[in-house]
Amino acid sequence: MQLRFEDVEKYINVLKLTVDEVPFCLVINVDESGIQCYQDGVRKNFLIPASVANDVSCYGVDRAEGRISVCAGITLSGECVRPLICTKSQVSNEELLSLGVQQHLHGLVRYSKSGNLNGDLFLEWISECLIPFVTAKRIEIKQRNARAILLTDNCSIHTIDEVKEMLGQANIAMLSFPADSTQYFQPLDCLSFSVLKRSIQNGRGARTKLTPAEGVLDAVDALQKATTIKTTQAAWRLAGIDFALDHGKLVAKVVAESFQSIIKKLKADNTITSSHRPAPKRASTKKPFGHLNEEYIKKK
Asked: Where in the sequence does UniProt note compositional bias of the Basic residues kind (predicted)?
């Protein structure tokens, strides 16, 4: 599905209505990133017959290490909400402690059969990490009733009713991006996750076999490098959101000029992909975007 300009305009208007003037420590972006050994390993060379040198060939990869998913939340103020790290293999607390990883400090470590986040784990991250973080920030800035903003994509586990209701009860407005737009509008995708992947790769070097606990340590370390204050603030600016000092308080500001460069990139991308493509096997369903939990906010 190609991103449409009318959707971009609608999203920008939603941002201006909901994000402008919000305390900058209460504007948060959340998403997940997967990390796998075969993805970040060393380059491999193969001998092949000259007759097939120009063909596209696929080779099996070693997936024995399994997958680790990092659920990360970054704020406009340059902070990082305690992450949830999901592993495909069971990891004991003793194994984590032996490497210096403390769950109450560095992040919740949980197991799922696929190594991917699911709805239950995302709800746990909201209740155990996000809401306590937001509550503490409200107390810190002495605005206990201030509304927080959570920016997220339209992934199905993010948009279930239980998530919308839990966020609404905590006075956290949930804003989602238009389809196929996270590379333009999601701060984590604009910069943070690329730094995360690079940090993982640089840290591992030629090591491709890690224990699950070592994989968690790598993920924690790389996330800290990817969420420094300068990197995080740069990621938000790339997504068109900055902050300003207003009557002694730091608040969010939607920067209209930033969206001009985003629209230019969008035009270029749409030109590149405008050539004829085969029809999709299944009809795509357009998901709603914008303020997704407004009804639960109003009920509060």
From this structure: 278-289
Whether residue 203 lies inside any domain: the answer is: yes
Structural domain includes residue 59: no
pLDDT per residue as tens, the chain (300 positions): 577 778 888 899 999 999 999 999 999 999 999 886 544 445 566 677 777 767 756 655 555 556 789 999 999 999 999 999 999 989 999 999 999 999 999 999 999 988 889 999 999 999 999 999 999 999 999 999 999 999 999 999 999 999 999 999 999 999 999 988 888 899 999 999 999 988 887 877 666 678 889 999 999 999 999 999 999 999 999 999 999 999 999 999 999 888 887 788 777 776 545 444 555 555 555 677 889 999 988 665
Which tokens in the block code for residue 255? 């920067």
Cα(84)–Cα(103) distance, integer angstroms: 9
Would 279 be classed as within a structural domain? no
**CATH number of the domain to which 230 belongs:** 3.30.420.10
CB distance 231 to 191 below 8 Å: yes
Q: Is residue 45 included in any domain, yes or no?
A: no
Q: What is the pTM of this model?
A: 0.83
Rg (CA), the chain: 21
